[in-house]
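Standup notes
- DV: blocked on the single-chain target, sequence here:
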Amino acid sequence: QTLVEGAEVFLRTMMPWGMEWEKDSFLRPDFTSLEVLAFGSSGVPAGINIPNYDDIRQSEGFKNVSLGNVLQASYGVAPDLRVSFVATNDQDDFKTHKATAFEVQVGIHELLGHGSGKLYHQDTTDVERLRASNVK
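- DV (later): unblocked, structure below
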């Protein structure tokens, strides 16, 4: 919830690029966590941003969804197994915080990744403006 509430301030004041790269009007993100019963694909994502069409997201809005039980099932760590490449004295801390840290990563990715920035299409006014400013 903290990420949702702070998304606009974060995007407008803390990113290392100008506002011309962001969407023309900010649409406050909506973030939900769902439990997955079935997912028809070869891989199950930890989070999704719907709809996938940027023009609809810009005009109608969008929803960021964390697939909560996927996070726990895929990224939890069995307490009795040793995690490779993690020092013995760090094993307990790693297992304690891994799932929560990954959930925050998914939230940031969905809210600030998919939920921000313009999608530039070839031969549009925005692209021509960018070409004129020598952006390569």
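- Follow-up: The mean pLDDT is 77.
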